[in-house]
């Protein structure tokens, strides 16, 4: 769903959210928004987490709605930066979220489709569950790093994630998987936030800065949730922490620093403060990376976009690559979530060979995973991927002259789930049995059955003879895709050397 639609949906959603459902046990205390310094997160994870949960509880259990347009210092933080900054931040966050969501969806699909994660999780004893979630929270929030934005995530609590409410761990994963990452229209999933929705609903006449600021909160929160989901799954699989793209705020301009300073003083006076010691340290290392290629470099060697001063690049080449996307937000004084959506042009290159879905056909999670796999840059030269063990995938290439027919069958199958097309793919692979590189016919059959929700038996094979030869257009487009794939694989090869 494109961000614009998502925020529309957020606006329409009725205001309902149950803290109990999220597993809140903390007694409701006196009104306070203060969060004093807490235990060392690296040494005392339980303490760190409890501290955080208490702070979130205080914030939400006593939530009193303050319109951000009122003259109240608690709600004026959106005035700290100007609209161009928020737009650029939102563009960057959108880019990073799409990236981390695709990783998370891929591994969640593996665990839920090829593994039996939901059941495994249910059967786990409570202590094990708690430890797993705690590890995920710690890795996702502290290593990503996005700890402070956890304040925006009332459902990210240990009790809530292990409980059996709508926002428990498997259900949050499911929300992400059910959103189709391969959908051409846009591949960003936003986790809704009832309070921010509430604010958004009351800010229709608000300045663009405020709208962009609230939208940024939704993005930040989605970033945290995805990071935690990803790291929890990694911990479950016994993998070492591999933080997904770290969150990198842009360089601060002098003006921005001044406004932040002013704001801090204002907050001090009004007895409201947040712990910024951590972000400072993170800030120092975060700015030194190229916006396009993420190459880490000394900040002074990076070049800045001279128009907006907000994005940094390692080279003119990287700046040129990013310009078609960046120009949509560079210096823009208005706010529209649509402008953060990825470029359609990049998109078609990213999803080589993947057709739009025919209305009425619902892709299974397994099929989405296949398409996601095929769309990865390093898999451009492959024709299909097969899961040969719980977390092991093998890929194969169909050799000419059958390759084109296979690709036409693949596109038909992926677009509509055509039974004939699936059987065509199967018979082509069966006929080149000796070139399957260790993938068995049973594995191929099993995977097709899972992906397309059908059965392949000797009977169905006989009855699926209605294969219509590829049309001229299909052939032309697939030839074209093949050439693009080869070019991109070649470019990749030279880049790696
Ligand atoms: Zn670069
Ligand atoms: Zn710019």
TrEMBL record:
GO molecular function: DNA-binding transcription factor activity, RNA polymerase II-specific; zinc ion binding
Record-linked InterPro entries: TF_DEAF-1 (IPR024119), Znf_MYND (IPR002893)
PROSITE patterns documented for this protein: ZF_MYND_1 (PS01360), ZF_MYND_2 (PS50865)
Keywords: Metal-binding, Zinc, Zinc-finger
Keyword Nucleotide-binding set for record: no
Compositional bias ranges of the Basic and acidic residues kind: 37-46, 254-277
Pfam entry (one): zf-MYND
Boundaries of every MYND-type domain copy: 290-330
Region of interest: Disordered: 27-46, 241-277, 470-497
GO CC entries: nucleus
UniProt protein name: MYND-type domain-containing protein
Organism annotation: Gymnopus androsaceus JB14
């Amino acid at each position: 769903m494109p961000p614009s639609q998502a925020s529309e949906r957020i606006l329409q959603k009725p205001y309902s959210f149950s803290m109990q459902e999220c597993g809140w046990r903390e007694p409701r205390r006196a009104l306070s928004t203060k969060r004093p310094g807490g235990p060392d997160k690296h040494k005392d994870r339980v303490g760190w987490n409890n501290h955080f949960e208490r702070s979130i509880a205080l914030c939400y259990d006593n939530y009193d709605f303050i319109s951000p347009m009122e003259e109240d210092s608690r709600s004026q933080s959106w005035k700290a930066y100007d609209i161009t900054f928020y737009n650029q931040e939102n563009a960057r966050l959108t880019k990073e979220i799409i990236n981390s969501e695709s990783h998370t969806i891929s591994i969640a699909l593996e665990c839920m489709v090829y593994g039996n994660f939901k059941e495994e999780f249910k059967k786990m004893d409570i202590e094990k569950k708690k430890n797993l979630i705690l590890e995920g929270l710690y890795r996702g929030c502290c290593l990503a790093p996005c700890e402070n934005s956890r304040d925006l995530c009332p459902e990210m609590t240990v009790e809530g994630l292990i409980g059996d409410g709508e926002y428990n761990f498997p259900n949050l994963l499911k929300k992400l998987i059910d959103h189709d990452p391969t959908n051409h229209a846009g591949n960003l999933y936003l986790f809704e936030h009832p309070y921010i929705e509430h604010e958004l609903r009351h800010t229709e006449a608000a300045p663009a800065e405020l709208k962009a600021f609230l939208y940024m909160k939704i993005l930040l929160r989605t970033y945290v949730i995805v990071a935690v989901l990803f790291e929890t799954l990694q911990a479950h699989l016994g993998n070492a922490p591999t933080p997904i793209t770290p969150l990198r705020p842009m360089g601060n301009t002098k003006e921005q620093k001044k406004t932040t300073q002013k704001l801090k003083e204002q907050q001090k006076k009004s007895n409201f403060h947040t712990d910024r010691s951590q972000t400072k340290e993170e800030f120092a290392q975060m700015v030194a990376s190229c916006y396009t290629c993420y190459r880490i470099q000394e900040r002074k060697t990076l070049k800045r976009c001279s128009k907006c001063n907000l994005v940094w690049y390692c080279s003119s080449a990287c700046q040129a690559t990013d310009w078609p996307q960046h120009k949509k937000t560079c210096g823009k004084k208005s706010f529209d979530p649509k402008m953060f959506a990825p470029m359609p042009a990049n998109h078609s290159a990213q999803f080589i060979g993947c057709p739009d879905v025919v209305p009425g056909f619902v892709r299974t999670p397994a099929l989405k995973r296949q398409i996601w796999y095929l769309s990865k840059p390093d898999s451009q030269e492959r024709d299909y991927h097969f899961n040969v063990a719980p977390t092991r995938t093998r890929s194969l290439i169909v050799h000419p002259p059958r390759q084109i027919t296979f690709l036409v069958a693949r596109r038909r199958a992926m677009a509509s789930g055509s039974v004939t097309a699936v059987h065509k793919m199967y018979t082509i692979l069966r006929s080149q049995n000796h070139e399957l590189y260790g993938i068995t016919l049973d594995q191929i059959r099993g995977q097709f059955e899972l992906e397309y929700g059908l059965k392949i038996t000797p009977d169905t094979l006989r009855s699926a003879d209605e294969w219509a030869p590829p049309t001229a257009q299909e052939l032309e487009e697939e030839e074209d895709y093949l050439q693009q794939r080869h070019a991109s694989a070649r470019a990749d090869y030279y880049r790696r050397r």
